[in-house]
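Dear Dr. K.,

Following up on our conversation at the group meeting, I've run the structure prediction for GNAT family N-acetyltransferase from Neolewinella litorea. I'm pasting the input sequence below exactly as I used it, so you can double-check it against your construct before we proceed with anything downstream. Let me know if the numbering doesn't match what you have in your notebook.
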Amino acid sequence: MLRLSPITPADNPTVARIVRTVMAEFNCVGEGFSSNDPELEDMYSAYSVPGAAYYLLTDDGRPIGVGGYAPLAGADGTICELRKMYLLPESRGRGGGRMLLEECLRGAQADGYAQMYLETVRGMTAAAVLYARNGFTPLDRPLGNTGHSGCDRFLIKSFR
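The predicted structure tokens came back this morning:
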């Protein structure tokens, strides 16, 4: 059974493993990708701030996915960023991605954001379908200052 819960300090190694596993699958490693972000070692602390949340998705207790949101760095405070949302390959296609995304959208709206922004790569085609189905539209350039120069696809969703 799929279950979503906020991460705890004990989840930090699991979160880092899932992010690095999925990013390696898509050859997204090194500078310019989220698998290289300093916050990856302590995601609990990074997302234990106002206007942010991060979740662990489990299937019968087994960790299978992660995702969250936080203010978009370099923006005006009305835009949040969907961050590090990844599912392990064997768990895809069962609704977990939708579950994670819907929780992040609910939380971001409750926190008062007007828009949610995300960066991804063109190779993550299943994720692109999920984003489109949930109202994200393409942008021709990145927003903010994420440090993810390896990303080549930029999307946004307005709440209002």
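Two things stood out to me. The domain at 2-158 is CATH 3.40.630.30 (Aminopeptidase). The chain has a mean pLDDT of 94.

Best regards,
J.T.
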